[in-house]
Design goal:
Structural class: alpha+beta
Number of helices: 3
Bound molecules: nickel (II) ion
Number of domains: 1
Order of helices and strands: HEEEEEEEHH
Distance between the termini: 37 Å
Radius of gyration: 18 Å
Length: about 190
Amino acid sequence: MALLDIIKAPDPRLKKISRPVEKVDAEIAQLMDDMLETMYLAPGVGLSAPQVGILKRVIVVDVSKDEDNRLPVRMANPEIVWASDEMFEYEEGCLSLPEHYAEISRPEKVRIRYLDRQNEIREMETEGLLAVCLQHEMDHLDGILFVDHISKLKRDTILRKLAKLKKLEEKERRKSGSRQKAAASA
Ligand code: NI
């Protein structure tokens, strides 16, 4: 198992469309497991492959929030085959947009067709938080972030704050990098 780096917005890689996987082979199964480990540590309830820089249609979700009773979901090439007319509103966040949240409205129930870890075609009917999470992760595969569901004004405000934070972190990294170099050369 390996921990993966989560890409933070704004980043052009988060706006790309991911490619379907041909088959869930050992490499994709390993990616699913690594993504889950990364997600649990973050901690988060869902993660998509593009968020770790891999443009493949792979997502993982676990809404159990119980370390002793985990309910991991691993999906490749997920597709919504049915969605309810009833909508469900939930305050969403995202590991790629840390510390920002917004109320998003999505279909309350969805049926999803996907490939599981054993490369079997499966269908899952979900509702509530699990349905929200799966739809949020599937959005990532098409380069859509939760802020793309809110007004441009709110979206721009959030992205501007994140860009500022990124610059600050970059500056800090450079500073500590030069300190380390100075110490090593002393
Ligand atoms: Ni997300």
